[in-house]
Amino acid sequence: MAHENEYHDAMIATLELAWGEGFMAPGGKGNVDRMVAGLDIAGKSVLDIGCGLGGPAFVLAADHGATVTGTDLEAPLVARANAAARAKGLAGRVSFRVVEAGPMAFGDASFDIVFSSGAFTQIDDKEGMFAEVFRVLEPGGWFTVYDWLKAPGGYSDAMREWFRLEGLTYAMRTLEEHEALLRETGFVDVTVEDRSDWYRRVVREEYGKMKGEWRAPMVDRIGRAEADRFVENWRAMVVVCESGEMRQGYSRGRKPL
Predict the structure, then answer these.
(1) CB 34 within 8 Å of CB 25
(2) What is the C-alpha to C-alpha distance for residues 177 and 251, in angstroms, rounded to an integer?
(3) Shortest CA distance to 71 belongs to which of 123, 31, 27?
(4) Rounded distance, CA 133 to CA 157, Å?
(5) Helices (H), the chain
(6) How far does the chain reach from its first CA to its final CA, in angstroms?
(7) Which of 63, 75, 136, 189 is spaced 20 to 30 Å from 256 by Cα?
(8) For the chain, which residues make up each domain, given as ranges?
(9) What does the pLDDT read at residue 42?
(10) Do residues 19 and 148 touch, judged by C-beta distance below 8 A?
(11) Which residues lie closer than 8 Å to 236 by C-beta, 6 or more apart?
């Protein structure tokens, strides 16, 4: 089944206004730096799953010295990422390609590091993708993930309302489930970190700016109706973050030698 693109122009414009040019997950460059802190990635090959517009890959290449291959299901995002790579003079060190859901078209032990920021939250078959990550990693290689997660139990009406306003497909798991999946897949040196308090504070600030200083730029970029919709979207996101139902977390594991 062909993938149906979900990231329309208004959403992309809003995400870049909130999180910075090229970024489709919170935290921008600082979040990327945190994800690879303590890892030696200079000169290493990195696979970025769910690369989006390419912001994290550019940080990994320009600031950390990696060679990056980014993959995404959405062709318009990949086209924009490749154009940005050329504009930044990084086309020799960063490349992006469109992929289909399911097994990856890379050989065993193809990458030193697999990186993913805010993408696994939309992957339903996490068991299969964790296994694929394990397969394409070199022995001794690291898998590092930042993701949008949920609290234990089913989705509340407030969470479903946020999903409706987002217009995106979500398949959230808990941080504890991510940890268990890493271990069950065969990763060692597994660590997880709950950063829900960080984004709970940040999303309040973002919502305030949506109603204030970002309001006029949003209207200029996407029109009043879409700007109103995204203000409501952020309000709904504040609700699920402050209730503790929507969580943010980091997961990391190493493929054994």
Answers:
(1) no
(2) 10
(3) 123
(4) 33
(5) 9-19, 28-35, 55-62, 75-87, 126-136, 157-166, 175-185, 196-211, 215-222, 224-242
(6) 37
(7) 63
(8) 9-152+168-196+248-254
(9) 96
(10) no
(11) 158, 161, 162, 165
What letter does residue 156 receive in the DSSP assignment?
P
What span, in angstroms and rounded, lies between the C-alpha atoms of 185 and 252? 12
What single-letter DSSP state applies at residue 2? P
The 3 state secondary structure assigned to 16-38 is: HHHHCCCCCCCCHHHHHHHHCCC
The two beta strands, 111-117 and 188-194, are unpaired
> What's the fold here for domain 9-152+168-196+248-254?
Rossmann fold (3.40.50)
Q: Which residues contact 232 (CB under 8 A, 6 or more apart)?
A: 165
Mean pLDDT by 10 residues, the chain (257 residues): 76 93 94 96 97 97 97 95 96 94 94 96 94 98 97 95 92 96 98 96 96 94 94 97 97 97
